[in-house]
3-oxo-5-alpha-steroid 4-dehydrogenase C-terminal domain-containing protein (Volvox africanus), 342 residues
Amino acid sequence: MMFPHCDVHDLDGLLWTHVALLSFCAILIVASLNSQLKDAAPYGRHAEPEKTKAWGFPIPQRVGHIISDALPGILFLTMVYLLYAALLPPNGKFSEVRPINLVLLAGWLLHYLYRGILHPLIMPYSSKTVAVGITVAGMFPNLLFSYLIAAQLACTVYPDDWAARPRFIIGVILYAIGTAINRWADLKLRAGRLAMRKHAGQGKVAGCTGSTAAATPSSASTARESLLDADDGEGRVGESRSGSEVVRNTPTQGPRPRGDVRDQYFIPHGGLYELVSCPNYLGELIEWAGYALAVWSWPALAWMLFGLSTFIPRSLTHQRWYREHFGNEYPAKRKALIPFIL
Ligand SMILES: NC(=O)c1ccc[n+]([C@@H]2O[C@H](COP(=O)([O-])OP(=O)(O)OC[C@H]3O[C@@H](n4cnc5c(N)ncnc54)[C@H](OP(=O)(O)O)[C@@H]3O)[C@@H](O)[C@H]2O)c1
């Protein structure tokens, strides 16, 4: 497969730097897939205390995500792009500021503004902290790929009609669809958890400043029961009283022990959640597939594959987790990541 418009190889030394880094990316993709298939990264619902300890001391989860995503995806990316732009020979063919390159750069930045800043600030995480090793493990690939994307975009001269070509147009459409799915799915989880906390009558719902103890197990249980009041007669529950249709769970049988995961988690319903366990990962995958098409470079393709190496194992682990914790209540036909397939 050729990427004919990526002219990195015209610049002395850069080609081999990129070949070496891309080879390393290939190893990283295989290693990430392999390790995460064996063992889920211990954050969120998979953060078992023993495993988490092995990943180092805890740091605030919001800060951790900002460090692992916003620093590389926004700050480092912009610095590398500007540095390359400054280093390129003046009046050379690469040094001109090209709107198409800036649009493609903005696609990356837009994602990281969301993932690196907005998402950590608004999500009501179940835990206040994350192990420092998780932050470092997340930051490393973000640094690597942000460097490669920024360098490649700074050194690529796209044909004048690039924006009118089907590859770019289809890529942008996919990027937009994937972005919309990803944000919708994330926000649906957020709304569901906030609804649970709100009905618990405790917790810092409005500001989402987040706290593990935002809803105590017993109060959250009560909250969930109240969300289940409106059983539609088919074992499914309608809208929560807050008006959110997010929390629609089937009733549980009998009393649950304190600390039940159901106090923090619900079965999401509606839209793509009827088809897959993790539409947020599916959306991000489509987003990066579109980005790879529009950018048409090895780094963008490698980044999409790297996403796949995380989304496949983690969505399978999420799906298994849902089945273990919600049993028959969890829709048996719901796939993990790709509707009707995986
Ligand atoms: N490009 C990449 O390599 C990459 C890798 C990972 C993630 N991401 C992106 O980062 C974002 C977040 O990823 P993630 O792995 O944290 O996603 P996630 O596991 O779906 O969790 C997202 C948030 O929703 C909460 N949540 C999830 N399911 C829930 C449920 N059933 N009931 C109540 N709350 C629920 C989680 O709670 P907890 O606080 O308990 O976890 C967490 O706060 C997504 O947009 C994803 O696409 C990208």
